[in-house]
Fold these 2 entries.
Entry 1:
Amino acid sequence: MAQSVIRTVVARYKSAKSNGHQWSEVHFQLPEYDLVWNRDYSLNQDLFSVNTLSGRLKFKFEKKAMKRYFNGTWKFGTAKLVHKFNKWFLHIPMTKKFEELEPQNVNHVVGIDLGVNFLATTYDTHGKTNFFSGKQIKQKRGHYQALRKQLAKKQTASARSRIKAIGSRENRYVTDVNHQITKALVEHYPRGTCFVLEDLTGVRKATERVCVSHRYVTVSWAFHQFREMLTYKAAMKGQLVIVVNPAYTSQTCPKCAHRAKENRHKKTHTFCCKNCAYTSNDDRIGAMNLHDKGMKTLCGGTILA
Ligand SMILES: [Zn+2]
């Protein structure tokens, strides 16, 4: 049990670092306990059995939503026991092997451009574009910002703790939106689809200078989360996610390949090629170029994801 505490604290610092957060002391407000499957806990259709300092205890649990995980195909991982709202919750990571889609079996490619105005813009092999609006998330962000400003003026302890609460509510909201969009994407496109995302590792520092109101772009964890969610959801549906180098995807003309900064007008969100005059929405251009890069990557046989 003592070892589990050390591991948990170390893991928390590690994830803060890998998420690019500034160093700050980690606090645990709620008691939690990591349980290793078959050593500290086990679970069958009827009972949850757990190792405690006073021996092994067995409990009944709420199992309605759990039923489908007992069919033998799911593996239970190290679980976290959490006390919240006067109840005990067990968070169990579950894994299941799915047959992976091989790159040579891809029959449909979808480029996905992630941004502020349209959270996700897609361009697929049939030349079809889809926009997943980010308007709502922008409004919500503005609302939370105003609330934070108001509270900051008060400078009381309760105001400070409310600011913190708003932060985590906002994060939960982004997580929820990511869930919705990734779910819509894997449901919209058929089995055999390969989604192409831009590889954002290493560009975080460059985007940090973007103004605060465009936080969704700068907070790279939201993108990482999107990529992770899409990857596992796609795998479950016989689809694939690859990442490509995003260099010049917003400045290059997808029709004539002419590359110039001036092709793109950030303010009006339009793209107009200085060479062939091809004009379109700039997010759509990003998705088109990602689609093309994805096609080339698949044909060249180098998969980065
Ligand atoms: Zn052009």
Entry 2:
Amino acid sequence: MKSKPQMLLFAAALTALSACSSSPYGPTNKVYKKQTKSLANTIRETPVNPAGQSFVGTVNFGLRKPNYVIIHHTAQNSTEQTLKTFTMPKTQVSAHYVIGRDGVVYQMLNDYLRAWHGGAARWGNLTDINSSSIGIELDNNGFEPFAQPQINSLLTVLDTLKRKHNIPAANFIGHSDIAPGRKVDPNITFPWKLLAEKGFGLWPDAGLSDSIPANFNDVEALRIIGYDIKNPVNAVKSFQLHFIQKEITGILNEEEKKVLFNLYKKYL
Ligand SMILES: [Zn+2]
């Protein structure tokens, strides 16, 4: 027979269980809070002057701001699966936002904190992309078209981020752009042209007829746009995935060279 204190304990356990079932991320939300508190404490510490001399705190400062947005597809089968992946310490991956096929937006991290979404990446001379970017993951199996409600929600999030952090249009790019040869997200069906029309990313002009100068160097143009040209074929593939969206051959045909020539002038 159970004693009274045991009964009480049992009731408390039941309550905790039901709380868990209504919010499966209660425990990881607690971990999030604890980690943000620890980071806040790091910021509050008086800095150690590298020269070992005095500290005089200025009164004029703010938080560092993200200046890029990197768009991904999850290559998973459900939003739930991605939320799980991003709340397990062993995966060491995360993003600021996850957007479901149904358009539901999950924010997973404060914009001012560093998510782990870029991996080994480069854009121009920028190598620590995670420190200066917001990562957005779109629930998608990697091959399917992106659902309309999902794109609508993405546009809303992008609009907020662009205004809040004053992010330049050219700085809305894809994971494949910053990791040629390693990443292919978001997939070839992603509506980059629509995004550019709304002010998120750049897009070549229509009906290109200008002839390309004889001294035009396509690899150099890719580098100026931002691509890592260590492996030029991979850089061309990433360019084709984002700006051509037809065949990914790794070799530019005449039409594609015209697109590149037109586009690179926008990045000069
Ligand atoms: Zn990615």
